[in-house]
Amino acid sequence: MADKKLWGGRFKEGTSASVEAYTESVSFDWRLYREDIAGSQAHARMLARQGVLTSEEAESLCRGLDQVRDEIESGAFQWKAELEDVHMNIEARLTGIVGPVGGKLHTGRSRNDQVGVDFRLHVARRLGEWSELLAGLVAVLANRAAENQETLLPGCTHLQPAQPVSLAQHLLAYACMFRRDHQRVADCLKRVRVSPLGAAALSGTTYPLDPASAAAELGFDAAFENSMDAVSDRDYVVESLCAGSLIMAHLSRFCEELILWANPQFGYIRLPDAYSTGSSIMPQKKNPDICELMRGKTGRVYGALVGILTLIKGLPMTYNRDMQEDKEPFFDADATVRASLAIMADMLAEIVFVPEAMERALEAGFLNATELADYLVGRGMPFRQAHHASGACVALAESLGCGLADLSLEQMCKAGADVENDVYAILSYRAAVERRVSPGGTGPESVRRQLEALRLWISERKEA
Ligand code: ARG
């Protein structure tokens, strides 16, 4: 019974069924099979280069591993829970294919560095996909912004009407967030792409390994510096999930706005039918379920982050089995991040903006009150006094049930605002946006510059 296990030499009895079920990881870490096979092939070739294996032995191992991969991908492979994890399932089958030489693969290696190689390669591959998806979303945002440079809507603070902005400026704000997410992922990748292969169990080995050459072959940027650190830390998982959490936070905020905008009381957007659902009882309903789910799924990704942070906080050096619990949260978070980014880009490309509804909304909330104050400052009034006078005009207009531009010159003057006929031109919402000439503001020139910079970033990224 016990010698069924690859580690069973010193055991007389087998593990109980419940323990096997409790400890196995192959039901989820089978997902690492590609990386596990690549890591083993790089290890075998490195062993041959270092004279630990003959090149025939290494070749036979690599060919056998190719066959294992084919079997897995064709569905012929039989995963066995009693073989615990992806590593031992693959090694056992390899030995079945190539015979006793299969037992040489694990020379100078431990599952501790092996699982690190697999997971780091896997996380790096997924982060690469996040980057692609983020760049795709930024490109859609740039396109939608370019189409909507002339579209105005109320910009809010505290979710209350504040100042008019262009829809382009609003969308470009999200483009900035997702571009930062992209940069964060790239930065995180620098630390993910460090190979632990050659650290062995915790202290290195007695074989003359060459970790750097194996690392290079696997596409890592570098090999580990300290064997104990190499098999111990999962900070790269934390960092990746932190980047993923911020991606979801940004998506979730956007979803929140889209949900509001789809509400007929705003009416700023029409959601494509393909991205909405109906109600089983209320025939008129068109619900923004996709946005709601994305907002909700954000919690899963935060949960994964907090889970891994908690997982590692009390671990003594070096490898501890607790670390096996790092995989499922990452797999789940990764699937959520990828699906969310993809669906947001597709949905955003098809959302119909309703400029008339946005224009109508401009009329409520005195979004030109700052313009009136700035106008008075232009005529020499100290800003605090101008703020007060403009506020008095707002109060008057509110009591009359009209807008600022509907007040007569006399009414404004009486409220303390020293105005002349030219005031009406600056009270226009479009003028308010056009006069915003400060760098990074909502003015047309600034928006054009932002768009240009973004497009440059997109094209540079495509070349890279
Ligand atoms: N399934 C294990 C994990 O994910 C692989 C490493 C096991 N190492 C060990 N010494 N038991 O962490």
Indicate the topology:
Blueprint: H1 17-23, H2 26-29, H3 33-49, H4 55-74, H5 86-98, H6 111-147, E1 152-157, E2 160-166, H7 167-192, E3 194-195, H8 211-217, E4 222-223, H9 227-232, H10 235-262, E5 269-270, H11 289-312, H12 327-350, E6 352-353, H13 355-362, H14 369-378, H15 383-400, H16 409-414, H17 423-426, H18 429-434, H19 444-463
The chain binds arginine.
Arginine (ARG) binds at residues 25, 29, 85, 111-112, 115, 319, 321, 323-324.
Describe it.
With 464 residues, the protein is mostly helical. The protein folds into three domains: 8-107, Fumarase C, Chain B, domain 1; 112-354, Fumarase/aspartase (Central domain) (Fumarase C, Chain A, domain 2, Up-down Bundle), CATH 1.20.200.10; 369-463, Fumarase/aspartase (C-terminal domain) (Ribonucleotide Reductase Protein R1, domain 1, Orthogonal Bundle). 61% of the residues lie in helices and 5% in strands. The protein contains 19 helices and six strands. The strands form three sheets. A two-stranded antiparallel ribbon has the order 1-2. A two-stranded parallel ribbon has the order 3-4. A hairpin with a 2-residue loop joins strand 1 and strand 2 (160-166). 40% of the residues are buried. Residues 25, 29, 85, 111-112, 115, 319, 321, 323-324 line the site of arginine.
How many beta-strand runs?
A: 6
What number is the mean pLDDT?
A: 96
The order of strands across the largest sheet is 1-2
Unreliable segments (pLDDT under 50, ≥5 consecutive)? none
The helix fraction, in percent, is: 55-70%
